[in-house]
């Protein structure tokens, strides 16, 4: 019997002195996103987050906290993924590399002015709510919202 499980991924909200880091994806689906990617076999989600941030932005980040785990089967059009989302910080200027055609910072006020791929708009909305209120996404509310 072969199991069909979600694929683990990570995404990172990187706070810098000049804003939040976003990338423009170089591969399909093309668009704006948070830095992140697939967790390699034998790798922790923490190591994957640090590695993906470095690969896509050139930034050496420090993880601060876990925002939430996003697992909606429709979050990625390519396949069912499950993303552990971290909040991190660093100094430096991002430079797009690897899967990122570009990397740049935007102010928190400008974050929602972009059109995002995957479920990154929802993640950013949750992040902004958390920064404003201290409330993280809550599993019970997610169950009610998703029926």
From TrEMBL:
What keywords tag this UniProt record?
Hydrolase
Q: Which Pfam families match?
A: NUDIX (PF00293)
> Which CDD domains does the UniProt record give?
NUDIX_NadM_like
Q: Which InterPro entries does UniProt cross-reference here?
A: Nudix_hydrolase, NUDIX_hydrolase-like_dom_sf, NUDIX_hydrolase_CS, NUDIX_hydrolase_dom
Q: Which SUPFAM superfamilies match?
A: Nudix
Q: Would you identify the family this protein belongs to, as annotated?
A: Belongs to the Nudix hydrolase family.
Q: What protein am I looking at?
A: NUDIX hydrolase
């Amino acid at each position: 019997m072969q199991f069909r499980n979600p694929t683990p991924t990570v995404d990172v909200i990187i706070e810098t002195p000049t804003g939040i880091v976003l990338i423009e994806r170089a591969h399909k689906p093309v668009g704006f996103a948070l830095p992140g990617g697939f967790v390699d076999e034998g790798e922790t989600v923490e190591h994957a987050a640090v590695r993906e941030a470095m690969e896509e932005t050139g930034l050496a980040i420090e993880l601060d906290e876990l925002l939430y785990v996003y697992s909606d089967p429709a979050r990625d059009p390519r396949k069912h993924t499950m993303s552990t989302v971290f909040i991190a910080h660093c100094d430096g200027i991002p430079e797009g590399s690897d899967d990122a055609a570009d990397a740049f910072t935007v102010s928190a006020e400008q974050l929602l002015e972009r059109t995002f791929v995957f479920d990154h708009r929802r993640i950013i909305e949750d992040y902004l709510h958390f920064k404003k209120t201290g409330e993280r996404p809550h599993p019970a509310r997610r169950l009610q919202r998703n029926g």
